[in-house]
Design goal:
The chain is an alpha/beta fold. The protein contains eleven helices and seven strands.
């Protein structure tokens, strides 16, 4: 429910009720620079009444709902303008709201200059903890197949991922997991959609569907007949699944909780999505994951995903969610 804080009080009231009815205990949403404080307080009050918690993300690598572009120069100096002002103001305003469990610095950050990025993380996380020592702080990283933290993705140099989360003003580790449906062309399709390159998106999407038609029957057999998830080991989805284990290991070594801030399964799986969801939650909890947040709850048609991961009440996830959140 990424846009919840921007929905207006009437929708906030209805959408949070719907989320609670589905069994959710935590909602992750944007709290970018233009968030209305009155509406955000209303959201906090509503969340408190439902005995839920919030994870609020302060900016977006993709530039959604913000007036600045995040790049290496931004991490070096420009963040000290609008972004840092927003961070100081919003944390000061909401530091006593116990409903806010975690503040995330940026949704899915990336950089080609690791040292500059690390300095940014140290600076901003320290400022947040100084203002609000009892609210948790995380980064908003993808993990798994990797965040671009310098010249290479973190999967090829995982020590950078671990080094970042060793910063003492970061309390918990964030990862995102779309491994079940991930493929090279599927990822390119999503990338081109973000960049509004429609022709490239259509082409890569068609190719992705071709390869998916080959693997889907095998995956479905494992889920429906063998009650287990299956990942082809040499594919992107297989590698993502393998590399996620490094993140779980980092969590244990640093003694910091790890949560999946985004996870999703495409609508093409239809009724099997519920079983895939159940098996995936069980697997991640057995690996030491502390929290699991689905992307994206499209109740009342709000928060549309655009990449086929969305779901609403009609998908029947409620019985699975309540099994783990009862």
């Amino acid at each position: 429910m990424y846009g919840l804080a921007f929905a207006g009080k009437e929708l906030i009231d209805k959408l949070t009720d719907n989320a609670a009815n589905e069994g959710f205990k935590v909602i992750r949403c944007w709290a970018f620079e233009d968030v209305n404080y009155e509406d955000l307080h209303f959201l906090c009050d509503k969340i408190k009444s439902l005995d839920m918690k919030l994870i609020l993300c302060l900016a977006d690598r993709w530039g959604f709902l913000q007036s600045y572009k995040i790049d290496d120069e931004w991490y070096k100096n420009e963040y000290k303008n609008k972004y840092l002002s927003h961070v100081k103001n919003v944390i000061s305003e909401f530091k006593n709201r116990d409903e806010i469990m975690v503040w995330e610095l940026i949704n899915e950050p990336e950089t080609s200059d690791y040292e500059i990025f690390k300095n940014f993380v140290k600076d901003v996380s320290a400022i947040i903890k100084n203002i609000s020592p009892f609210q948790l702080v995380s980064l908003g990283t993808i993990g798994g197949i990797g965040d671009k933290l310098g010249s290479v993705f973190s999967v090829f140099n995982h020590k950078k991922f671990k080094e970042l989360y060793s910063i003492n003003t970061l309390d918990c580790i964030s990862v995102h997991d779309y491994s079940y449906d991930a493929g090279i062309f599927e990822r390119l399709d999503i990338y081109f959609r973000f960049k509004d390159k429609k022709t490239a998106s259509i082409i890569t999407g068609v190719i992705a569907k071709f390869f998916d038609a080959i693997s889907k029957p095998i995956q479905n057999f494992f889920v429906s007949k063998l009650n287990r998830l299956f990942f082809f080991p040499v594919t992107l989805r297989g590698l993502w699944n393998i590399y996620s284990k490094f993140d779980y290991k980092t969590s244990k070594e640093l003694k910091k909780p790890i949560y999946v801030g985004e996870v999703g399964f495409k609508k093409k799986h239809k009724e099997l999505r519920k079983k895939i969801l159940e098996l995936d939650i069980e697997k991640k909890f057995s690996n030491g994951v502390s929290g699991y947040i689905l992307w994206s709850f499209e109740s009342m048609g709000y928060n549309p995903d655009g990449h086929d991961y969305g779901f609403d009440e009609s998908d029947g996830f409620k019985e699975v969610i309540k099994k783990f959140n009862s």
